[in-house]
Amino acid sequence: QVQLVESGGGLVQPGGSLRLSCAASGFTFSSAMMRWYRQAPGNERELVAAITSAGITAPYARSVKGRFTISRDNAKNTVYLQMNSLKPEDTAVYYCNTYYRSSAYWGQGTQVTVSS
User: Fold this and answer.
1) Distance CA 8, CA 99 (A)
2) pLDDT, the chain, mean
3) Is residue 4 over pLDDT 90?
4) d(CA 49, CA 62)
5) How many other C-beta atoms lie within 10 A of the C-beta of residue 37?
6) Stretch 75-103: mean pLDDT, rounded?
7) E-state strands within the chain
8) How far apart are CA 104 and CA 16, in angstroms?
9) What single DSSP character describes residue 26?
10) Which terminus of the chain is less hemmed in, N or C, by CB atoms within 10 Å?
11) How far is CA 93 from the centre of its chain?
């Protein structure tokens, strides 16, 4: 029973920060690559960041590079997305994703709204 549960979203002013969390269960988290995606209304779902089981990050999306950081704590079965210097363009639903036994799994998403 794979489960991914995002939390940490909310309303923040431009320039502010948020840290998203994704709590994982039902699979061997320590062996899995984890990803953060986001989707704004009218836009395609966008890969934001990815991290391997060993904690190695893939290149960030150009739109967030230098502002966002993905990390994981295998002891807590949790992956994080630290978001700094937030812009209105970052407003979206943020999703946690993994592949397990050839199937894709997604969390329910957490809403991030950047507005003054």
Assistant:
1) 22
2) 96
3) yes
4) 10
5) 21
6) 96
7) 3-7, 10-12, 18-25, 34-39, 46-51, 68-73, 78-83, 92-100, 103-106, 110-114
8) 32
9) S
10) N
11) 10
Quickly count: other Cβ atoms within 10 Å of residue 100's Cβ: 15
End-to-end Cα spacing for the chain: 40
Residue 15, beta-bridge partner list: none
Report angle CA 97, 98, 100 to the nearest 5 degrees.
150
Token reading at 116: 């003054």
| Tokens matching residue 19 | 């840290």
Task: Give residue 59's pLDDT.
Answer: 87
Length in residues, the chain? 116
Report, as an integer, the average pLDDT of 13-42: 97
Residue 101 has pLDDT above 90, yes or no: no
